[in-house]
Amino acid sequence: MTSISEVSSIPKTKKPSDSAFKQQRLPAWQPILTAGTVLPTFFVIGIAFIPVGIGLLYFSDQVKEYIIDYTDCNSTNYNRSDGVPYTCAEYIAKVPHPRIPCTCEINFTLPSHFNGKIYMYYGLTNFYQNHRRYVKSRDDNQLLGKLSDIVSNDCEPFAYDGGKPIVPCGAIANSLFSDELSLDSMKHGMKVPLLRTGIAWPSDKAIKFRNPEGDLKEAFAGYEKPKNWTKYIYDLDPDDRNNNGFQNEDLIVWMRTAALPTFRKLYRRVNHEIDGFTDGLLEGEYKLAINYSYSVSAFDGKKRMILSTTSLLGGKNPFLGIAYIVVGCICLLLGLTLLIIHIKCSKSVTEMITVTPNTPYQE
Predict the structure, then answer these.
(1) Percentage of the chain with pLDDT > 90?
(2) Which of 71, 112, 293, 304 gets the highest tally of CB atoms within 10 A of its CB?
(3) 3-state secondary structure of 311
(4) Would you say 304 and 120 are in contact if contact means Cβ atoms under 8 Å apart?
């Protein structure tokens, strides 16, 4: 029997055990990159990517869009002392939360028929929703309807107001887009019917955002609204419980943060079940009416309204098609360049076979 003293006297070693894995004797495969394998790869990628890119561009071009920048629209209900109307941006900068919202109207002409399903988006520029602290500034447990007096530290400084927890807390919810947009059709003499539902991802509404049980007003009693909101969470859509509270689709769309500082988010869908709008929007005169409450002047931003159709691949996005075409062209160019170099500079198979370590170098 080996004693403890004998075991302690055995010299320790860092040498790995004699196994195929630790001694790196496992069989390995390494591709041999030759002109016969590399050049066809470049040509195949180029020939495949360019038609795909052209197809993506074609479908993107089938999407019709009409964009209106309303950042500096003139107010219809607030004038200066000389009778000249304020722009709503100027008035909100002067009176941050007016008792009566600043309103403005923009008349425009839709140049052609917008056939199929029509969607209304709002767009913002120079708004960095991808900032790390901004993205983290939310309480996912709270958004699941699990209310408590303890709010996540990530929500600071938008966690409490007057000692009461804010619902929903955090910078994302506090900066919720609040402009109200509507369309009037002069041809039909009526408002364009817009739907407030069906704009959020179904998975978000079913899984990530849930309301507490019972009456929403009672459930949210004792909680404060975010500082920049004019409504409480239970008043976002009081006529439809399924679109109210945490399950309000405007809130859900906003909480899915954008990756780039210039972005658009789905705002409304045109109701195509109403007579006159079953086939889309007809060309003609329209009026965009805005309840202007969302200030972008502090970060030199811009606001716009976008009317858009869709294609087989979704909304208008030429970037993907352009990227495929550029990559395909680069691969074809590289393939042709390497093919020319191979033809002019490569050695024949016979010459390569006769090469030995002792073969003298020749330029």
Answers:
(1) 69
(2) 293
(3) strand
(4) no
Q: Bridge partners of 302?
A: 125
The answer to whether the beta carbons of residues 289 and 211 sit under 8 Å apart is no
For 172, list phi and psi in degrees, rounded to 5: -65, -50
The separation between CA 328 and the C-alpha centre of its own chain, rounded to angstroms, equals 26
- pTM to 2 decimal places: 0.81
Q: What is the identity of the amino acid at 358?
A: N
Question: 301 near 125, Cβ under 8 Å?
Answer: yes
- As a whole number of angstroms, the distance between CA 69 and CA 167 comes to 32
- The DSSP annotation for 200-257 comes to S-HHIIIII--PPSS-HHHHTTT-BPPTT-SS-GGGSSTT-GGGSGGG-HHHHHHHS-
Q: Are strands 263-270 and 280-281 parallel, antiparallel or unpaired?
A: unpaired
Task: Give residue 5's pLDDT.
Answer: 56
Three-state secondary structure call for residue 340: helix
Question: Where do the H-state alpha helices sit in the chain?
Answer: 4-8, 35-61, 88-94, 132-136, 140-143, 171-174, 202-203, 216-219, 249-255, 318-345, 349-353
Instruction: Identify whether the C-beta of residue 292 lies closer than 8 Å to the C-beta of residue 189.
Output: no
Angle (deg, nearest 10), helices 35-61 and 318-345: 160
Distance CA 339, CA 75 (A): 65
Which three-class secondary structure state does DSSP give residue 264?
strand
- In angstroms, the CA 90 to CA 118 distance is 32
Distance CA(268)–CA(272), nearest Å, equals: 12
Report phi then psi at 220, rounded to 5: -95, 10
Q: Which two tokens stand for residue 153?
A: 């530290």
C-beta atoms surrounding 87 within 10 Å: 18
pLDDT at 32: 78
Q: 292, 277, 276: which is closest to 78 by C-alpha?
A: 292
In sequence order, the 6+-apart residues with CB closer than 8 A to the CB of 143 are 168, 208, 209, 210, 246, 255
Distance in angstroms (rounded) separating the CA atoms of residues 351 and 353: 5
How does DSSP classify residue 124? E
**Three-state DSSP class for residue 69:** strand
Please report where in the chains the tokens 């055995």 appear, as a residue. 10
- CB contact at 8 A, 209 and 167: no
User: For residue 250, how many C-alpha atoms fall within 13 Å in the half-sphere facing its CB?
Assistant: 20
